[in-house]
Design brief:
With 395 residues, this protein is an alpha/beta fold. The chain has a single domain, classed as Rossmann fold (3-Layer(aba) Sandwich). The strands form 2 sheets. A 5-stranded parallel beta sheet has the order 1-2-3-7-6, with helices on both faces. Strands 4-5 form a two-stranded antiparallel sheet. Helix 2 crosses helix 12. It starts with 31 loop residues before the first helix and ends with a helix. The structure holds thiamine diphosphate and magnesium ion (MG). The site of magnesium ion has 6 residues, from strand 4.
Length: 395
C-alpha cells in the first residue's frame, strides 16, 4: 500500500484526530488496478473490526442502516409468502444483498436519484418511497400510481427520485447515465445519480455504451454492480473471463472499486467516496459489491435445479450481512435481543397492516386502460373498450 496516512482519503481533507480513519482506508490510494482487483472490507465475517475504521458509524447511523436491512428481509419474507398463496403475481427477494442495497443508497442525499435493478426496492423504501404506494403497485390495484401497467415489483416514486426498474437487463445503466448527464447539462449541480446492475448486466452491449459515455463525459454517476455470483442459472464463470467485474471499469478509464458486499461499513465507505467524488464534479465511479444471491432468482425460479445449494448454505451461515451487523451491534451494546425483537415486531406489523389495507382494493377502472396517452382517446380505442366491456358482461 502506498504511503497514505491513517485518517486521509483521496480528495478528502485530512481528518481531525477525533475522526481519524484506520488502515483500511489506504485502499483508496492504491493504484487503479490494485483497487479493482482488491476487496475493501472493514467488518470481518466474525464481526471483528479495527475501531479506527468505524468512527463514522455512531449508534444512530448503525441502527438506521440495520433497520433498513431488517425491513427488507422481513418484507421479502411476507411478500414471498403472499406470492406462494397466489395473492401476488410475482416477487423477487433481496436476501443476502441487503447491505449492498441499503448501505449504498444510504450515502445519497434527498435531491439525488436512484436508478434500480431488480433488488433495490428496499433501498427505495429506505430513502422514503411511500410504502402504501409501493404495496398498491405490487397488487396493481386502483391506488397504484402506475394503474397496474407495470409488472409487480417495478415501482417508481417521483418524490424520492426513484426510477422504474427496467426489465430489459442493462438498459437501466444508460438511463442512470442519462439522468446524470441531465443533471450536469442543466447545471443544477450538487446532484448525483446512483445506478445499479447485476453481474449478468455487464455482458450486455448497453453496459459498454453507458460506461463509455459516463467516463468520457464525466457524468456525476455512481454505477454499482451487485455481483451476487448468479444471473438466474448462469454462474459468474459463465459470465466473464475477467478476474473481477471491477477491472472492466478501468478499460473505460473509470475509477473502479471492489468491496465486500456483505460488510455494511465497507459498502457505505466505498459508496460515500464515490458519491462525494461525483458531487464535487470529479466524474463517475464503477463499484463491484461482492455478495451471494441466497434466494431464488425470483418467485418463478428454483435454484436447486442448477446450483449446489450447500454453497448457498455456507454463505447463509457464514457470510450473511445481517448476522454480521448484529454481532457488531450487540458487542457495542446498541441492540439487545429484546430490542431486536421489538424492532422486528414493529416492522412486521406495519407491513401486515398496509398489506391488509391494500389487498382488497379493486383493480383500476377498466377505462383507465385507454387513458393517459391521448387527451381525448380516439374512436378506435373507444370501440375496443366497448367491445371488451361487452365481452366481460357476458362472462
Ligand atoms: C435483455 C434481457 N435479457 C434477458 C433477460 C432475462 N433475465 C431477467 S433477469 C436475468 C438475470 C440477471 O442477472 P444479474 O444481472 O446478475 O442480476 P440478478 O438477478 O442476479 O440480481 C435475465 C437473464 C432480460 N430481462 N433482459
Ligand atoms: Mg447476478
Amino acid at each position: 500500500m502506498s504511503g497514505v496516512q491513517a485518517g486521509e482519503r483521496k480528495g478528502e481533507k485530512a481528518a481531525t484526530p477525533m475522526q481519524a480513519r484506520g488502515p483500511a482506508f489506504a485502499y483508496f490510494d492504491l493504484d487503479e488496478e490494485a483497487k479493482a482487483r482488491g476487496l475493501f472490507s472493514i467488518l470481518a465475517e466474525d464481526g471483528s473490526y479495527d475501531p479506527a475504521n468505524v468512527t463514522r458509524f455512531d449508534k444512530t447511523l448503525c441502527l438506521q442502516l440495520y433497520r433498513g436491512m431488517l425491513w427488507t428481509r422481513l418484507m421479502d419474507r411476507q411478500f414471498m409468502a403472499l406470492q406462494r398463496q397466489g395473492v401476488l403475481g410475482f416477487y423477487a427477494e433481496t436476501i443476502g444483498q441487503e447491505a449492498a442495497s441499503i448501505c449504498s443508497a444510504a450515502t445519497l442525499e434527498p435531491q439525488d436519484w436512484l436508478v434500480p435493478a431488480l433488488r433495490e426496492h428496499g433501498a427505495g423504501l429506505f430513502r422514503g418511497m411511500n410504502f402504501e404506494n409501493f404495496v398498491a403497485q405490487l397488487f396493481g390495484n386502483a391506488n397504484d400510481i402506475t394503474r397496474g401497467r407495470q409488472m409487480p415489483l417495478h415501482p417508481c416514486d417521483r418524490p424520492t427520485n426513484y426510477l422504474n426498474m427496467s426489465s430489459c437487463i442493462a438498459t437501466q445503466i444508460s438511463h442512470a447515465v442519462g439522468v446524470a448527464m441531465g443533471m450536469k447539462i442543466s447545471g443544477v449541480g450538487n446532484q448525483v445519480c446512483m445506478g445499479y446492475m447485476g453481474d449478468g448486466a455487464t455482458s450486455e452491449g448497453d453496459f459498454h455504451v453507458a460506461m463509455n459515455f459516463a467516463a468520457v463525459r464525466k457524468a456525476p454517476v455512481v454505477l454499482i454492480c451487485q455481483n451476487n455470483q448468479w444471473a438466474i442459472s448462469t454462474p459468474v464463470s459463465g459470465q466473464t473471463a475477467a478476474e473481477t467485474f471491477a477491472l472492466k471499469g478501468i478499460g473505460y478509464g473509470m475509477e473502479s472499486l471492489r468491496a465486500d458486499g456483505n460488510d455494511m461499513f465497507a459498502v457505505y465507505e466505498v459508496c460515500k467516496y464515490a458519491v462525494d467524488k461525483a458531487r464535487r464534479g470529479e466524474g463517475p465511479t464503477f463499484i463491484e459489491l461482492l455478495n451471494y444471491r441466497l434466494s431464488a432468482h425470483t418467485s418463478s425460479d428454483d435454484p436447486s435445479r442448477y446450483r449446489d445449494e450447500s454453497v448457498t448454505t455456507m454463505w447463509r451461515e457464514k457470510r450473511e450481512p445481517l448476522i454480521r451487523a448484529r454481532i457488531f451491534l450487540e458487542k457495542k451494546g446498541w441492540l439487545s435481543e429484546a430490542e431486536h425483537e421489538a424492532m422486528a415486531a414493529q416492522i412486521e406489523s406495519t407491513i401486515r397492516e398496509v398489506v391488509a389495507k391494500q389487498r382488497d382494493v379493486p383493480a383500476p377502472p377498466l377505462r383507465s386502460l385507454i387513458e393517459d396517452v391521448q387527451q381525448t382517446p380516439w374512436w378506435r380505442l373507444e370501440e375496443d373498450l366497448a367491445a371488451m366491456q361487452e365481452l366481460l358482461a357476458k362472462q
